[in-house]
Amino acid sequence: MELLNFIYNNVFMFLVVMTVLVSIHEMGHFLVARHFGVKIDTFSIGFGPELWGRTSKKTGTRWRISALPLGGYVKFFGDDGAASTPDAGKAMAPAERAVAYHYKPVWQRFAIALAGPVANFLFAIVALAALYV
After folding, report:
1. For residue 58, what are the CA distances in angstroms to 39, 43, 76, 84, 87?
2. N-term to C-term CA, the chain
């Protein structure tokens, strides 16, 4: 019984907290990127094989929950791989460049990158305020 108690109190609750924090962090990136007109290919909570997913008909974004809930990511249009590098050798039309992350001005890319940690910081303020009310 102690083993089950340990698993619930430590492992399971750790995964729940990580999932919430990652979701808020990635949503920060997502919202600011959408604000600047960046097309998002995938919004994923977790890594690895997809457990659940759907594609938005309006935006074309693939929303997914993956098997390993220890992180997540937002894949922008034009990214090639996990390191968020531009697609090598792919010629983009002007309309595609307008919605690609790597062709946005530096200040917009900086704001998109900063949005995740800021979202977590704001969430911490709100959560602590709620605890003390």
Report:
1. 12, 15, 16, 24, 24
2. 35
Q: Are 124 and 25 in contact (CB under 8 A)?
A: no
- The proportion of the chain whose per-residue pLDDT surpasses 70, expressed as a percent, equals 92
| 50 in active site | no
Q: What is the pTM of this model?
A: 0.86
Output the pLDDT for position 123.
97
Question: In angstroms, rounded to a whole number, what is the distance separating the alpha carbons of residues 118 and 107?
Answer: 16
Given 2, 26, 50, 96, which residue is catalytic?
26
What does each C-alpha distance from 12 to 4, 38, 49, 87, 89 come to in angstroms?
A: 10, 35, 20, 38, 44
